[in-house]
């Protein structure tokens, strides 16, 4: 029988957040695949876990995934851990999970800490609808495309950023999104946890005076649906009514349906559009 891959969430700062289930699983499996064995050995030693480790990280994720899958085929049970938080979230574990699913190997997740969710709950921004973007791409063209998509995003957005890139990223986001509300979280669950609810302008003024330190989670308000509807309506108002009607009619609507949609788009009554077309 094939073994099982266990995705084990580890603390993002406070070791008290380690779950009993994860501790027991790490002790029971045949092998632990860790993002950085030098970092993870401290965690294992703290909890008295003696299981052997092997490295699995961004730079060996493809070839090492094949090796780990072969061990799972042979019946070994393997736990996957990242340096902090939940494996496969902005993490090479995603590659291993996909390969296991393809090969019919059982994968199960042991829930625990995740910096993105911890920051979201602390943000004071809407939690009903949100999206996770992780780290922005480093390639300029791809980053520009992502930022343009985020500009229209109505959900609360969550991003990760390193301290040496924080100011640049805040400037880029401000330039595209405008002066939105943002909550900046740092050192989550640790002694010096910081949660700053502010705006892009205020954050930039702060970090230009104070050097960023630690890993950051950025929680950003989405564009309001009201603002989005207003911008859409303004776009329709730039069209002549005849052109506006033509778009719907060419899409297959009859004249009556087209007038109804044009009136809705422009925020006026259907009678007003009907009268306009009669006068023409």
Q: How would you sum up this structure, described in words?
A:
The protein is an alpha/beta fold and 280 residues long. 46% of the residues lie in helices and 18% in strands. The protein has helices at residues 20-28, 37-46, 61-73, 93-103, 115-122, 140-151, 166-177, 200-207, 225-237, 241-250, 255-266, 270-279; strands at 4-8, 31-34, 53-55, 78-81, 106-110, 130-134, 156-161, 181-186, 194-199, 216-220. Strands 3-2-4-1-5 form a five-stranded parallel beta sheet, sandwiched between helices. A five-stranded mixed beta sheet has the order 6-7-10-8-9. Helix 3 packs parallel to helix 4 (93-103) and helix 11 crosses helix 12 (270-279). The radius of gyration is 25 Å and the shape is elongated. It starts with a strand and ends with a helix.
Q: What's the helix and strand layout?
A:
Elements: E1 4-8, H1 20-28, E2 31-34, H2 37-46, E3 53-55, H3 61-73, E4 78-81, H4 93-103, E5 106-110, H5 115-122, E6 130-134, H6 140-151, E7 156-161, H7 166-177, E8 181-186, E9 194-199, H8 200-207, E10 216-220, H9 225-237, H10 241-250, H11 255-266, H12 270-279
Helix pairs in contact: 3-4, 6-7, 7-8, 10-11, 11-12
